[in-house]
Amino acid sequence: MKKLNVLFMTAGMLAGLAGTAHAQLRVEISGVGSNQIPVAIAAFADEGVAPAQISAIIKADLERSGVFKIIDAGTISDAANVDYSAWKARGADALVVGSVQKLANGTFDVRYKLMDTIKSSKLSQLDQSTTPQFTRLSAHKIADDIYEKLTGVKGAFATRIAYVTQQGRSYRLEVADADGEGVQLALSSNEPIISPSWSPDGTKVAYVSFEQKKPVVYVQNLVTRARTVVANEKGSNSAPTWSPDGQRLAVALSKSGNTQVYIVNADGSGLRRLSQSSGIDTEPQFSADGQSIYFTSDRSGGPQVYRMSVNGGDAQRVTFSGSYNISPRISSDGKTLAYISRRDGGNFQLFVLDLASGQEQRLSDTTSDESPSFSPNGKYILYATESARRKSLAVVSVDGRVKQRLTTQAGNIKEPTWGPFMK
Q1: Which of 50, 92, 130, 348 is 20 to 30 A from residue 34's alpha carbon, by CA?
Q2: CATH number of the domain encompassing residue 188
């Protein structure tokens, strides 16, 4: 069975990560959402003084979401009187204007306004003071604000993703902005790194390293670099995932024979066995409320997704369509289950299941999918796939309409996971 796991993180703690990766990710977009919202975005006044072009990043973020139709608005001062009727006539439901000012201390004052052309009123505004290294983050925050004000859903452009790259015998755990920019190195090793999982506050990351010539679960503090061995039992130690409160991890251990699900404190203490089957139980995942554990088990023959109380006890089968379903991941609202299913002659593809209605939907058209991870707003799923014998990353909207492919010219990319909202 594949040992995969979801990750959550807060991007603000990553400024201290050492080194940069060899290559940025390239994003290709296909498909659009239904009923796109037309938004006019003006070039920000004096934005050339900043190291990053704020308006271009905002446009790219909104276009990538598939939710918006972008209308180029040229350059408009954010202080100018807006002719709402003229922009409405051009088909824009909203107008974005802004400015950038470099201050004497080397920081930048980034200002933005979102105007509603239908109601002829101001919807929102932000005034951010930022250092040069965080100008891209300021743009992502503005895009998040636009997304939320116009859709009612919190935007996830200012979040980060993490993944493992492999070139030969070199493995690197890397993090990047959600658009693939700003790649930074978190960990490098000559032995495999798998199953990264960020603590809910983003200050620590759990992962499995083979540096001791066997799989061992570590928790690493990103700020101090201190590492704690959380699970180094006899046999395999794998698939760490954090509880929503960040106090515990669920792991899959084979210390007693077949792999089973255990709970352990984040400092490695208090190890407790949770599942008690005669089969293989692995890939644990906490429910959104922390009261249940979803996991993969072959207790019914082939691997399927089950759910049990965080205190143990009987497990209930969750997936019934298809004979092979693995890698459960739960959306932040607890309503949707994502998983990898083997169908159609052996293809591994991404599916989602509405837990209330039982309705299932295939989201990918690729054939070697693994490691699904929800965006923190639950609207997109990041996963690994394979094309032309090279592993790459992909993103798909939960309705299947919008697809992105993230590629790099340097090696294979796998084990992706999407971080939490920034604090």
Answers
A1: 348
A2: 2.120.10.30
Q: How far apart are CA 84 and CA 326, in angstroms?
A: 52
Neighbouring CB atoms inside 10 A of 405's CB total: 18
- The answer to whether 196 and 162 are in contact (CB under 8 A) is yes
- C-beta neighbour count of 161 within 10 angstroms: 26
For residue 293, what is the enclosing H or E element? strand 292-297
* 30 burial type by CB count under 10 A (0-12 exposed, 13-18 middle, 19+ buried): exposed
CATH of the domain at 46: 3.40.50.10070
Average pLDDT over residues 191-197: 94
Number of other CB atoms surrounding residue 342 within 10 Å: 17
Q: What confidence tens digit (pLDDT) does each residue in 297-334 have? A: 999 899 999 999 999 999 999 999 999 999 999 999 99
pTM of the model: 0.90
CA dihedral 98, 161, 247, 272 (to 10 degrees): 160
Q: Which of 102, 118, 151 is the last residue of a domain?
A: 151
Task: Write out the residue range of the structural domain in which residue 168 sits.
Answer: 11-23+157-418
Residue showing tokens 């971080």: 419
Average of per-residue pLDDT values in the chain: 89
DSSP string computed for 13-81 = GGGG---B-S---EEEEE---SSPEEEEEEEPBTGGGSSS-HHHHHHHHHHHHTSEEEEEEEE--TTSP
User: Would you say 236 and 249 are in contact if contact means Cβ atoms under 8 Å apart?
Assistant: no
Categorise residue 113: left if φ over 0, alpha if ψ from -120 to 50, beta otherwise.
beta
Comparing CA positions, the residue from 365, 323, 317 lying closest to residue 337 is 317
> Distance between CA atoms of 396 and 289, rounded to whole angstroms?
25
The packing angle between helices 54-65 and 135-151, to 10°, is 40
Question: Position of tokens 């594949």?
Answer: 2
Query: Going by DSSP bridges, is the β-strand pair 260-265/248-253 parallel, antiparallel, or unpaired?
Result: antiparallel
Task: Tell me the Cα Rg of the chain.
Answer: 22
Tokens 């293989």 appear where?
A: 280
Looking at the domain assignment, is residue 280 inside a domain?
A: yes
Q: Rounded distance, CA 392 to CA 151, Å?
A: 30
As beta bridge partners, residue 358 has none
